[in-house]
Amino acid sequence: MEHLRFIKNQVDRISKPVKTAVFLFIILLFFAGVANAYEQNHQFVYLDDNGVKTEVKTYASNIKEFLKEQNIVINEGDILSVDLDADIKKHMEIKIERKADIILYIDDEAPWHRDTYAKKIDEFIEELEEKMDCEYETAVKYDSSAIKDKMELKLVSVKEEEVTDVQEIDFEITYVENGELEKGTEKVVQEGQKGERTIVAKKLYKGGNLEETTIISDSVTKQPVSKIIEKGTKEPVVKNETRAVNANVDSGKHVSSGSFGREIKMKATAYTGGGTTASGRPAQVGVVAVDTKVIPLGTKLYIEGYGYAVAGDTGGAIKGNKIDLYFDTHREAINFGVKNVKVYVIE
After folding, report:
1. With contact defined as beta carbons under 8 Å apart, do 179 and 234 qualify?
2. What pLDDT digit, counting tens, does each position of 282-321 carry?
3. Are residues 167 and 198 in the same domain?
4. At CB < 8 A and 24+ separation, what contacts does 133-140 make?
5. 223 shares a domain with 180
6. How many domains does the chain have?
7. Domain range spanning residue 137?
């Protein structure tokens, strides 16, 4: 009892200002304790908002409170990596993938919209290539590689195509001399066959237009077979007597029997090309062009080094003792050239 009276007497002796100061000090200690307790209640989390990564200090207890605290809006189509009711944990990762609407232009097609979660243009192109089974590249250069909502993206399609082209190879014509055949006559002993050349190429198209062609292989896949013709070199025996002859006249198949008459020395040239002659006959071997003042049309002839023939055509350059002999091919006409020959009129 004595001790309590002593303490009471001591307190009563303290002045009023001191009592006020002590009270304020106690109040400050209380709020400092509360503030310290609040400060110790915070957490640090890692936020990845569509590729933008930051470390965030939060006092929220769950994800829903955190989003509200940080003024983060989740739009329709956005993907949140954790549930809204999930508790906040120290150093947890919160990831938000935001959907972007791309206005897409490809080649010359009309623009169309495509949603994507890609962050960069290259990522979006890879995503598009998987869906469309085609390759693409940007049509213009962009200042930034980042994908932005509502951005216009211009692309061109890139396509490679391997093509095979089979081409014909003409066969050669080979002439072989045969001393058993009379001059002016020919015999085909082997027909020609065309060969084949196969070319494999890679074609690169951009925007539907051919940009580049690369030859992969070029080879002969079928060798041509030469046409072999035997050409007579035997000189004909000419006798001034009646004999049967075969020539391409009138019907183009035969002439009647006759005898060799006068002999005319003439300068012979050669021509080819087909068509219809001045006499109305088709241009063919055995029909020759003459000067009608020297040899009338329809006259049957035997020409040294050529064979039996009929005068069936005329020509502007065929004057006097000149005669133009028809051949089937340009090569035969060139090989014949220009010669001085003996021409016999068949009577």
Report:
1. yes
2. 999 999 999 999 999 999 999 998 999 999 999 888 999 9
3. yes
4. 134/158, 134/159, 135/159, 136/106, 137/206, 139/105, 139/207
5. yes
6. 4
7. 100-159
